Amino acid sequence: MTKRICLVVLSVILALAAFGCAKQQTAVVTPPDASPVTVQAETQPTSEPTPEQMMTDDLGIKILLEQDDDMKNNYSIIAVNDAAPFKDADGNAVSGVAINTVGAKALIDWLMSDAAAVLIADYGVAEYGEALFTLSDGKPVSTAQIPQATDATKIIRLSTTTSVNDSGLLDYLLPTFESKYGYEVEVSSAGTGKAIAAATMGNADLILVHSKTQEETFVADGYAKLLDGYQSERLTFMYNYFVLVGPVADPAKCAEAGSVKEAFARIAAGKFAFVSRGDLSGTHTKEVSLWPESLGITTDPASVAAYTDWYFSSNAGMGVCLTMANEMDGYVLSDKATFLAFSASGGAVG
Length: 350
Known about the structure:
It is a single chain. This protein is α/β, with parallel strands linked by helices. The protein has 2 domains: about 55-70 and about 240-345, 3-Layer(aba) Sandwich (D-Maltodextrin-Binding Protein, domain 2), CATH 3.40.190.10; about 75-240, D-Maltodextrin-Binding Protein, domain 2, CATH 3.40.190. It has 13 helices and 10 strands. α11 links the parallel β8 (about 275) and β9. The longest helix is centred in the first third of the chain and has 28 residues, at about 1-30.
């Protein structure tokens, strides 16, 4: 009995001791008159990065040369002739082609309007600090009344280049046109050669491209339509510049060249990696005109067979070529709008 009493007393003493310790500890941690104390780490002042730094910090390539007279990049829009001699890829005649001339004219009239001109001139200013396209001097101007879409004219098929599409310009312009007039523009993009070929097969109502020689051939072969209110089939209305893009380290020292042709000669002489569109696009056509004539480089793949240790023909769009150049520390010719959009996305291909 005595032993049991002693155990009970000992248990009570231990319990009281534990309670006292807990109470004392709680009082130390959260005294009733205490004020909360926040400890802040010392911060260092930071400066805001410039738009150019933000666009290129994650890339290994940058613009090395631009604004050269040999690098002007004109864009033209052409309506497809509904009576054209359409042919398939094998050259066989194609019949029963339906061309939406009313829809094509509606889109062209809008693009030539003052309202569209304002949008084109503004595109890129907010994001890049400069317009990505410039309206051409003496471009056609339309004040024609644009009809609302009908069930028969609602769908407009536009065949264009990857350079235009990847720049984001059409995503910026077309919603305004579509919401106001009720049309739906179906955009397909490829290199200029393929974009034009699609139209010769009857798969487009109009084309928006940037290769003068190929455009003139398209017109001469009877695939272009002269629209009411215009003086020619081929309507050149805006431009930007091609830019020579290359590694930040610029081993060929292209940034120090006096001209773009001198820069291309340096790339060839040093056998530095160069990525070509290789797809008969407007960019490809421009690129081959910039190499030293002694190299004999043309749009014919056989002409570069001897240079495959440094000249890489991709047969791909602009975004893919920029990605390849970035990964290879190589050089590439690009239109400026697409490169800026590519850089702003951190190198993502749209």
